Amino acid sequence: MERDTNQSSRLMNSRIFRPAIAALTAISLSAALGACSDLLSVENPGAIQDTQLNDETLAPALVQSAVADFQRMYADLAYYGAVLTDEAVTGHNFETIKEIDLRIAKPNNGTINSGVYTPLQRARFSGDSISGRLRVIYGDSASKSIGLARTLAYAGYGSMLLGEFMCEAPVDPTSASLGWDDLMRRALDRFDESIVVATAARQGNSKAVASADSILALAHVGAARAALNIGDMAKAIEHGSKVPSGISFWVPHSTDKSYLENTFYGATHGNNRNLGVDAYFRFLGDTRVRHTKTSRTGHNGLTLLWTPFQSPSFGEWVPTVDVEFEKTTPIRFASGLEARYIVAEARGAVQETVDLINERRKVGDPAATDISLSLGAEGIMAELRNQRRRDFFLDGHRLGDLRRYKKLYTVDLFPSGPHPNTEWGNYGLNDCFMLPIQETTGNPNAKG
């Protein structure tokens, strides 16, 4: 049960479960000890006490917490996004993951809550709350704090991804859920503030220039993406044009803990492998989208799986070799290349867009022929979307892209009709993850 073991380990080690475990332990002890209540009157301090949270020496640890919460959830997010879209089919035996693949998952789907929504909200909240804490810690100097600039950038990605993956989501317990546009604007506010703070941090401080420039690039990519998602093409071009073309931002993985491993390793190895390349991405003859030449079944013993190899968004990708996923394989979540695609989509069918398409076609196939403006606007933009899906295969971009294409251009590329497993019937209509019942039950305001 290789994938099951990895998934269970991720959940049990997740901090979201620790309060529940602690509560159950307390209840058990209370029932067993009865009158011996004094035994429960003990101090159980955490590593950092509440009174220490304003200690400036702890600020770097707080910043890293926000970054770590984002990094920890990202590979799972990319995995489930691939299953919902046309990137991948599932060979998983879990009914909840089958429902995601079929586009029929409902609010009571436990995998959405544990694998998508809770980690996303934790990362979003961590970025937001730690940014607020840093403003208190640094006081007047917060306006030029590298740490604050960084947490604001990750807070922006948290809100943006919440908007791309969830149909709706609340961001506080007293207000209704926010939709796509509102979450994108919320992300833009955080990216814009991150840019202001990072710009101030690099002025007059030579030691901060490299860090500030990196944060600026990260925030500009995010701002360009959020602006594009709401159709603000001018702002998308403004931000995207400021990103160095060769820069990339990666989520690292580790074997120190099972929940720190790259999710795609467990999904593509062993007898219980469960991820296969969907038909739309198979046999493209493209170095960026590689998979096994033959299929086999995995965890559910039914789905035919053409197992994917690494794409350019994974750290060991090589253009000429099939490279398997490893537990430590890093995943790219933002880059200068993405910014170039954003600018091209925002500009439309102009020569610069054609030039990017021709460049990327040759990355996938050095013998590829060039296109020209004579292809026409519709054909050019369709080919831009085609090259984008190849460059960012399996890295968490596809769901947001498909939702944007549908929303802004009425181009619907979600899988439809009969599922490859004919026993499963037809695809449903889900194009996002529904708000889990656990949220609406505990937070009635979220129902809108």
- Shape by Cα distribution: globular
Q: Which structural category do the helix and sheet elements fall into?
A: mainly alpha
Q: Which series of helices and strands comes N to C?
A: HHHEHHHHHHEHEEHHHHH
**Fraction of residues in β-strands:** under 5%
Overall average pLDDT: 90
Number of helices: 15
Low-confidence stretches: 1-41
Estimate percent helicity: 40-55%
Tell me the radius of gyration.
Answer: 23 Å
* Total count of strands: 4
Q: Terminal Cα separation, in Å?
A: 40 Å
Name the strands of the widest sheet in spatial order.
1-3
Describe the sheet with the most strands.
Answer: 2 strands, antiparallel
How would you characterize this protein structure?
- The protein has 448 residues and is mainly alpha-helical.
- 51% of the residues lie in helices and 3% in strands.
- It has helices spanning 2-13, 18-33, 59-84, 95-101, 110-138, 146-165, 180-202, 209-229, 233-240, 263-268, 336-347, 351-364, 377-391, 398-409, 437-442; strands at 88-90, 248-251, 275-277, 331-335.
- The two termini are 40 Å apart.
- Helix 7 (180-202) runs antiparallel to helix 8 (209-229), helix 9 runs antiparallel to helix 11 (336-347) and helix 12 (351-364) packs across helix 13.
- It is built from 15 helices and 4 strands.
- A two-stranded antiparallel ribbon has the order 1-3. A two-stranded antiparallel sheet has the order 2-4.
